[in-house]
Amino acid sequence: MNIIIVFPKIEHAKQIRSILLKSGYTVDAVCSTGAQALQAANDLDSGIIICTCRLPDMVYHELYAYLTPRYDMLLIGTGSQVSSRGTADIVCLSTPLKVHELLQTMEMMAYAFQQKIKKRRQPHRERNIQEKRMIGEAKALLMERNHLSEEEAHRYLQKCSMDSGVGMQETAQMVLSMMGQGWPAD
Q: Is the pTM of this model over 0.70?
């Protein structure tokens, strides 16, 4: 995982780098401007950007907008600065910065980052005929009993699947059994 630290005062960035290095992280770049951070990000492809709210040449949300989706951002600022951030995708820490909070947050972000990479690498598995048929029957049942369109029924199954953390096939099977339909259909 690549880490880029961006602070207008380079000594602040170096202090954070020192903390991370002592805890086993590798810091790939220390920058004082958004342009430098973007150049480093383009050279590295993906990772975590640690920055403050205001940089000499841009503010954090501009930097975030220029980054590829393969980068996560940790924003460090005053309580009012981080509470008024523009997007929920940015993780925030308030100053004064506590070392244990920084390290816990980095551990959480590193884990989430690794999970995203793992998910990207996994090939998408095609459903077999039986799974497709079960999902189709669950959608048909939802359409009939709940007066949903095919698209609405599909979105309902997807949402239930994501909320419960199980696959669409298992969700379809649950819907069929809860609505009195056995699988395979009688």
A: no
